[in-house]
Structures are given as C-alpha cells and as structure tokens.
Amino acid sequence: MDTTLRDAHQSLFATRMTTPQMMKIAAYLDKVGFFSMEVWGGATFDTALRYLNEDPWERLRLLRSVIKNTPMQMLLRGQNLVGYRPYADDVVDTFVQKSVENGIDIVRIFDALNDIRNVERSAKAVKKAGAHLQGALSYTISPVHTIKGFVEYAKRFADLGADSICIKDMAGIMSPYPCYELVAALKSEIGLPVQIHSHYTSGMSSMTYLKGVEAGASVIDCAVSTVAMGSSQSPDETMIVAFRDTEYDTGIDVRRIRPAAQLLKGIQDEIAAANPGVVAARTVDTDVLNYQIPGGMISNLRAQLTQSNNLNKLESILAEVPVVRQDLGYPPLVTPMSQIVGVQASMNVMTGQRYKMISKEVKAYIKGEYGKPAGSIDPQVQKMAIGDEPVLDARPKLPDEMQNCVEAVKPYNGSIEDALSYALYPDQAVKFFEGRAKKQS
Ligand code: CO
Question: How much distance in Å is there from the Cα of 411 to the middle of ligand 1?
Fold first, then answer.
C-alpha cells in the first residue's frame, strides 16, 4: 500500500498537503500497481477543514475521479471516526456509508485501547456498505501485551467479518523478530490476509517488513521515497527492489514511481513555504528506542516545555511516562492516550508529587469512558482519582445526532456530507460553509 496521500504527509508535513497538490500526482500513483492507496481519514479530515479551507468530501470525490485502477483506503478511529470523541451510532453509520459512496474501498479501523466495543458499530457499518473491513490492532510493548492477546483481539475482528488484519505499529517500535512471530501466529490462528503498518522512526521498519513478509504478511505500508523515512514509512522503491526476483516479487516496475517522486520534491517545497516549520527532519530517532515513547509525543512535550521555560524537566518527564503508563494499565501511546499520559506525567513532575493533581481526562479514563485497558489500573491511583465511584462496564449509548446536524447545515444548502462535517467539527465546518456561500454568491 502507498501512504503518500495520507500517513506520509501526516507524519512529515503535519497533514498539510492540499487537494490540488495531490491531484498533480494521484493519476501517476494510480498507474504504479499498488495493492491500495491510503488517501483519506486519520488527521486529513480535520486538517482539510481547519487549516486548508477545503471540503474533505470533495477531495475524496476528486481523487476517485483520477484513481481509477487502485483501491482507495482510509483510516478510521472506531466510534471516534476521524474526530477525538465518540459519536452517536447514527453518525457512525452515516459517516461510513458516505465514505464508501464517495469512493473508499477499504476501511482500516482501530481503537487506541484495542477495546472491541469501540470498533463494533463502525465495523458492522463497513460490512453493510459492502466495503473491505480491515481490523487493526494497535501494537505496543508492555508486560501485559502478548502475542496471545493480540491474536485474541484479531479473532474478535474476524468475528465481526474482517476481510484482513492490520498490525498498526504507529510508533515504529516493532522489531523484526517479534513481528515475524506475531504475523506467523495471526496467519496460523486466523488465516486472514495480514497487512503491516509501521513507521521508519526508529530505523527498523524496512527490516520489520522483511521479516513480516517472510512470516506470511501480504501487504506492507510504504511511501514514495521523496516523502518516506523519518517518522513516515519505508520507501516504496526500496522495498519493491528488495523483494525483486524472490517469491515475494511485487512485479512492480519502480520506474513508474519516478514521475510522482520528482513532482513531490516541488510539492514539499510548496508546503514548506506555505507552512513555516512543519516539514520534519528525516532522521532516526533513538529516543524512541530508549523510552519506547512515540517520536511525535516527545516532540510535542519538548515544544510545550520550551514554551513554558521548563525544558530542563524533559528528562524527568520522559522517565515519568512509563510510570504513569504502568499505573494506568499500559495503554498504547497513540491518540488520545499519548496526550493523556504525557500531560499526567508532566503534572507529576511539575508539582513534585505524584498524582497531587490529576487531569480530568485521566479521571474519565479511569472511570472507563475510553474503554478497557489491557492491564489493570493501580488501585491507589484509582482511589485518588475517582474515590469509590463505579467504573463503566459498557460503552455508553449516545443519543442520535444526525437530525440536529442536518438541520444545522440547512442555511448553507448543506448535503448529508456537510451534516457529517458539522457533526465532527461544527465550528470549522460552519466557517467553511460561510466561505463557500460567499464564493458562490
Ligand atoms: Co501511521
């Protein structure tokens, strides 16, 4: 799979590639012969509306109009869709249906805590819409995360009708040999096609892909070399040539990638000029190996501490993160857990006393509002956070939201897609609709 139009620029350019820039290369990429292209979802929806003044749905339709041969893939955060909070079931159903109607063929669904209850509704909606359901497990390393546990979770996805399983190593911390074991276990116990998603961050992903493919993985996530490496994926061209003349030969002529690779150099320059400071350096981040903390999380912490003149506390906070993570039952450090754990670790260091202050998100997490972690929460921390309050044992059913959203976009001649944009990002959506109305009048 080629991630150039989604994860690569999300990881390297803060998701700032515009639709016109994508349209310069989409038709070339379509001719390469990739298994699929990841073009939508994740942070692209938010960023299009918030920073680029673009309609994410229009982007999807435009890409579909030129990507005629390659299946198009998106990333979905379960009940949180492409937002940061759980949405009502009717929003989930409609969002998935409209994503597929507008051009998505494969939907990859994940939950930060690997709690199947958070993905059930969206998974069923994908099957109902007739698209390929890819169940992703959020990969992490901890004393409570085992191959057996990951396989069990993948089985639940298979029960929901998953067409394939993805190992989502969002932090780029999966080493080659554990990857081999995990893929082999998934293949022998479930038998569905396995796709591997990793990041180059720690410098291991190409080796991890190699071992994963040897263990039976059928698809690996890579990006055009121009936008590969660093915190992005391994380069398409390198991996294609690495497997040439073996039983894993992709049959792809790497020269077909060259036009897009050349054009991306100019696109990167445009993005750097339009968004000062967003283009990330493409180095190997050894902190990821030292602390098992995702690179994005460390750079966020560093930026926040620089702003508040507390950069001298960075080392203590980095050392505190694993402590908080353990107290909270080892959540994978992916959105939103990376932010929640990072903020609490900072509070523990800044106040000079662990859990003297506890964030509202940590309290909600301990109450079970985000789902159930793989490990158990430290009883003393739980007591300090929520006292004797009960912990939720089911996902709360939210009241329907679609009708309100349809009403809210009526003054802007809104479509169902517009109502969905409004459901997820009301302020940004209204601002976009107002601008669109002005342009049309
Ligand atoms: Co990723």
Answer: 37
